[in-house]
Specification:
The protein has about 180 residues and is an all-alpha fold. The protein has six helices and two strands.
Length: about 180
Amino acid sequence: MEARVPGPRGEGVMEAFAFYLMAALATAAAVLVVTERQVFNAALYLAAVLALVAGLFGFLGADFLAAAQVLLYVGGILVLIVFAVMLSSVRDGRVRSQINAQWLPALAVSLAVAVAVVEAVRRSSFAAADVQAAPTTGALGMLLFNEMALPFEAVSLALLAALVGAVFFSRKERPDGAAGDAK
């Protein structure tokens, strides 16, 4: 489906309405993510944001980005976030204070990174590139499995190692006899 600009006789008005409604819902859900006090509910609002962004990609004609958004973020990253919430130090849905003695170095590093980002944005011209439309899915698939096969396999091994590590740390007893953090 190609994105259309609303015409003078009303063609494309429903598509534009649905697009703006979806964008407004994504914005509202994003606000709920950062204002919600219950961590698990915030993760569910994040799922809504990610799914709505996938819908926006679909409206804009970026079919591969929409599918990747659903598979990677809604299906993968969100499951990882919920897994981390379940294994973290959250009690009664509320996060305990994480302030410790390292707040001053963390603040200094954060400010340095913020200054670097602002300076990089200020110096950039952000000139629009002349990009020609091309079928993204087929070309990306050929690139991924032909020229980029080695990095693709390296990423898959890194994800496998992360999964094995998560299973290892979530066990009640580790093979070395030490008790895990899961209760």
